[in-house]
Amino acid sequence: MNDLQIANSVAPLPIQQIAEKIGIDTEKLEFYGKYKAKLPLDLINEEKARQSNLILVTAITPTPAGEGKTTVTIGLNDGLNRLGKASIAVIREPSLGPVFGIKGGAAGGGWSQVIPMEDINLHFTGDFHAIEKANNLLSALIDNNIQSKTRNLGIDPRTVLWKRAMDMNDRALRTTVVGLGGKNGGIPRETGFNITAASEVMAILCMSKDLEDLKERFARIYIGDRFDGSPVLAGDLNAQGAMATLMKEAIKPNLVQTLGHHSAIIHGGPFANIAQGTNSILATKMGLSLGDYVVTEAGFGSDLGAEKFFNIKSRSAGLSPKAVVLVATIRALKYHGGKSLKELTQPDVAALEKGLPNLQHHLNSLSSFGVPVVVAVNVFSSDSEEERKLIVDYCQNQGVSVALSEGWAKGGEGCESLGSLVIQAAEKCEKSFTPTYQLEDSVEEKIKKVAHTIYGASGVEFSSIAKSQLKKIEKLGYGQFPICMAKTQKSISDQEKLIGRPTGFTITIREFEIAAGAEFIIPIAGEILRMPGLPEVPAAESVDISADGQISGLF
Amino acid sequence: MNDLQIANSVAPLPIQQIAEKIGIDTEKLEFYGKYKAKLPLDLINEEKARQSNLILVTAITPTPAGEGKTTVTIGLNDGLNRLGKASIAVIREPSLGPVFGIKGGAAGGGWSQVIPMEDINLHFTGDFHAIEKANNLLSALIDNNIQSKTRNLGIDPRTVLWKRAMDMNDRALRTTVVGLGGKNGGIPRETGFNITAASEVMAILCMSKDLEDLKERFARIYIGDRFDGSPVLAGDLNAQGAMATLMKEAIKPNLVQTLGHHSAIIHGGPFANIAQGTNSILATKMGLSLGDYVVTEAGFGSDLGAEKFFNIKSRSAGLSPKAVVLVATIRALKYHGGKSLKELTQPDVAALEKGLPNLQHHLNSLSSFGVPVVVAVNVFSSDSEEERKLIVDYCQNQGVSVALSEGWAKGGEGCESLGSLVIQAAEKCEKSFTPTYQLEDSVEEKIKKVAHTIYGASGVEFSSIAKSQLKKIEKLGYGQFPICMAKTQKSISDQEKLIGRPTGFTITIREFEIAAGAEFIIPIAGEILRMPGLPEVPAAESVDISADGQISGLF
Q: Which residues does the annotation say bind ATP (chains A, B) (predicted)?
């Protein structure tokens, strides 16, 4: 059975039954159909949240197919529930664009999925749409002001960094000229579209503490400059009230269920290469308020997702994970050992051994945060016994907790031993994490500390553009923000071909972006695509729906 | 109190209570929060639908502010319920774009509104978003194919008529160039965006009989031509399955309530100048299945909305209204009598008298359909007694049913006398309507019949482009489609400055568009804007939300 078939083989429980299990009164639920509900923000209890156990799932450097972090997250969550812990999975919302591209759905896999899988992968409760509209309303206000006769702010169209957003894999929108067609069409200028998940509105949603904070962050969005060089903020266009109004439902986390009928809260889905890559702070806190354990994940490898989870999200929200689960797969380690993607299903102990330094690197850099780490080997049917033993021994020999994770094939039952190790780790964790840098450090210093401690780089270089932007960032008063590194997920370094555990490399910061509303500085290392394209054979062509509403081709 | 304050002064009933009143089991509802629900299509009962009474609300030629058709529709619906009739209001969904432009909300007014007003005017149940995504997925597939190496259909980018859609007043998107930025960005070409309500996907939704029909219509969308001149359909890109999948919830009508706690079904919202301008066929049939009366409306004046309601929608769906309510306002008639917009609140019997021929024209052209007409004078506090008497006498003197409609100030109570006249009319209506043209007529003949019978034009001229397109339309086999006239709503003619009752004018068809999926031919008479812009002071700037979620500035 494929993922969609497995998902459809389990009858979901009415969402009020799921909610009841975690103590939510049905009256509190805002239903979206029978199996989805929005949760009001007053369910957050800061004191309870501080007492609960936050478990972060991250991964080694992934192959293009991904290493099953979401699957492990959901499986582990169901495993913890089987072990008697009140655990809630808190994860990101999938982006619609890639569903019709190459990737298919993103709601876990096999017997570790969240359902209703089709809805979650399609429009869900409309959060992405609301984000897109808030983003694009600001765009419309900008272009309207640029052509305004009576209320012109003097925005220099050449400096406008704010792009429109669309949740679609559509490469033709990467670079566009808008405002053509004569006077009727406004003032022509070059701009483009980001996929919604890569927008600052998404990043802001995930950083916000409440509706008021969301609105204030919107007002502080840095759009571009006036002709006189002074900065223009969204607040200068009075955009924040309408933007926040558009987000009045989207700010509320969404409740669904896992295939094991346990609670899963899904909210926000920022990219992990260009943004912070984790679900909303509000969703995490809500999970911690309603359960004793929250299992959550951060996008891509630990160099991207986990680093940002600690230094940006946890610091801002006052959170500290009690344990980190590092997902490794035998196939990815063989890839880092030099095998091609096509060869990964063939047993190859030598390649696996050669790839282990990638795992080792992630273990080392994670140790800098001072939080216990458990390795989860996400098993595939193509793994050999010998390969599995090798990786388990490798970890145990250096005293690292390790368990096989069989969530795909067995759901929560396949994650019980992983769950036991996680509970042990969490119970013995007594202190808060150690950040990689201080907010008071200069932007340059922050980047160097991440590059050295997390990537193992031997140095950092700044382009001349980046150097002059650094001055501007300090001048605009954004120097105290944390940094949100934008780099390839394919390598620990900033060069995607350097797989395994590269050493002796330098990180090159080509330029900076400013996310003044989300409150971080984005140092750009390498080519980062914020609008994907469709492949030669788009997945959309296989997606179908029958006359009675049965969907096929989503997987 | 403004509309938002009035709407907020009434506590809505839980939507299951509203549903219960019209015999819908709670189990059948798909909740969207507490006060909105989607209705499954199996609630449609074709036989019951044929027996119920369909009441169409249309209007004289409107001023830019609109003459309150939706307000009359909702008020009349509540009035009919007060008179003991099981009546359901079936109306269009408002477009989000204009809410932030100049217009504010569009969910009725005063004490004749549908609630929750904010939700209905913002994202509602996400139908517009789904339409936009289905539209834009097709766009992405087109541009992906144009740059495809292995599966290129040979689409000539210069001929692609299909545009992207966005529900936003954003003039800078009217004309764009996409695909810039080198190889990475696809093949550059000129294109643009329509506001979502003006998209063919919206038109198709409103014409579809079921999910299968929707999908088949998507497959038949005419996109443009190949370099060899042959037509390319959406089906050639295998787009229809994914497009229909995106629409699986959007195809279901939405249930909300009026301020009088009666049922209102809201579904679909196509433009009335460029598309058919009425809610979905599915929603109308669902209303007729669940109630004995359905009060529905068609956009703009009767020359646009009502003509299309009869000749396109009713013909295709096998519907026939039992009565037509023609909404007139004293202010609009004074406008047609030559007064400026600013002078309309001043009593002016002479101007009113001078404007009456506009009303007379709509009465005459509506009589061609052979369905009884009731005039509803939608009263404003600025009307004088003398003015009201004049218009009532004018109608009564020629035997036309007429009533004052006080829905804004008094809700259903203010529409009881109108309701009584409507019931009388419906009860005596025994035959189906007479269409203006036959489907077998040539496209040219259809246009001439509408121009003569409905507009009172003395002739029709075709540009040379239009003439050559006519040949192409017949060649492509689309000649049997009904026509969906695109012309200004500001005049009965195609020249917006010809207010009142113009005579001796000629209609000029400049060009044609083909909506092969919606199944109509769009003759374009005059400049039709499919993407509005924002005004100098966008309404968005006044919209705000407080920390506890109270919205202000929507009206």
A: 63-70
